[in-house]
Amino acid sequence: MSDFMEPAGKDDEPLENKRKRLIFRSDHRGTKEMDLFMGKFAATHVPEFNADELAEYDALLCQNDPDLYNWITKKEPAPAEIAGMSVFVKLLAFEFV
Question: Among residues 67, 65, 97, which one has the least CA distance to residue 83?
């Protein structure tokens, strides 16, 4: 994913630390809508993610809020590398309420 920001974690980061970091980042996105949606999704799913899913989710969180919001709400199609992520599929299927 060369067109996107790189994930913030280290390769040798313990999984539990990564989970905590991703949940925190999800809840502090920058826009209230994304804080609520991503925070609830992360609290629900991140504790059960395996190492590969955590890496995908870390990469997903590197996307800009406006882009991510438009992809989630289907106002714009997500790029193929995002749409193909298993965690993005779970995110689209997530019921916020």
Answer: 67
What's the rounded Cα separation, in Å, for the pair 16 and 35?
Answer: 21
What pLDDT, on a 0 to 100 scale, did the predictor assign at position 70? 97
Kindly state the tokens that stand for 66.
Answer: 């406006």
Among candidate residues 26, 80, 22, the one with its CA nearest the CA of residue 55: 22
Q: What is the DSSP track for 16-31?
A: HHHHHHHHHHHH-SSS
- Token code pair at residue 74: 């289907």
Could you read off the pLDDT of 58-79 as tens digits, one per residue?
Answer: 999 999 999 999 999 999 999 9
Backbone angles phi, psi at 94, to 5 degrees: -65, 135
**Backbone dihedral region for residue 14 (phi beyond 0: left; psi -120 to 50: alpha; all else: beta):** beta
Average pLDDT over residues 75-94: 97
pLDDT score for 97: 74
Largest CA distance in the chain: 37
